[in-house]
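**Archive record**
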Amino acid sequence: MKILAVGDTYIPESVMKAGLWQLEKAGYDVTVRQWKHQNLEALQMDNLLIEQQGPEAVVMPDDLFSDIHQYDIVIVQFTPLSQKILARATNLKLIGVLRGGTENIDVKYAASKNIAVANTPGRNARAVAEFTVALMFSEIRNIARSHTALKNKVWLKEFPNSAGIPELLDKTVGLVGVGHIGQLVAGYLKAFGCRLIAYDPYVANAEGIEMQSLEAVMRQSDIISIHARYTEDTHHLISQKEIALMKPNAVLINTARSGLVDQQSLVQALKEKRIQGAALDVFDAEPIPEDDEILHLDNITITPHLAGSTADAFSNSPKLFCSRLMQTIEQGCDMTIVNGVKLNLP
């Protein structure tokens, strides 16, 4: 069985090769290449184009997939696989994507060619969970605001929440979604003595968490943290209606997908001081346009889509996918196929 793995600036060839050693040890023919960029920013700009416009948005170097017809499996992270490329992949059975999202793959066309597409859920779950808790502290304890003020030689002691800066002990934190990331966040917050409530229509029970309706979570929570999966059904899951239910001293955190929250309604609530604050790592337009009013709010903490980007998350991704693939090959375990194609490896 022939396997082609394509690394990038985040997962270079050496890291990719080291992560897939089990496959080589098992006797499979593994070729590793790299989609090259001058720096991380250049890769990020290409990835942003692909996320917004699909895998056709960026043209691949001719030599990267010139022999794709030879391979049974292709493994990528951000590298796009367009219809044009997949049309030549006459032997391909499986595309492995080393992250949760598959925007860089023409998933529907792959299905029409009977090519299974598998992602790697949970590969950066701990990174996102840790960042989520960090954003909570940064917003409620004014860490980013005071840092920026000091860098500008201002000894700032007055903040939008100065009348009620909280501690986490006994505060109610509402999780919207309790998948892998949500459960990790819950575990961290239990150590701080938080009361945990959650909304997730796919989870009936979660240890140490009270499952409630979305409306109840929005009404009761001092901090609301978004961890739901983004689909057509969850677009603007948190809309103007839900934001209006929040307590005046409540804070909303989003490190998941921007589309889960009606950003315009959230910004309006922050402008009118109807809620205490927010912390966002994801936005409707990325990078944020220079004239976006979100940049002028004084009761929000913003970061440029950093939550899942740790060295450990990237370096562990090939290992995690390789382990799952080996379990599938050797033990018949199911992989997370996202396009409904039955995996049929030689």
About this structure: The domain at 125-302 is CATH 3.40.50.720 (Rossmann fold). The chain has two domains: 2-123+309-331, 125-302.
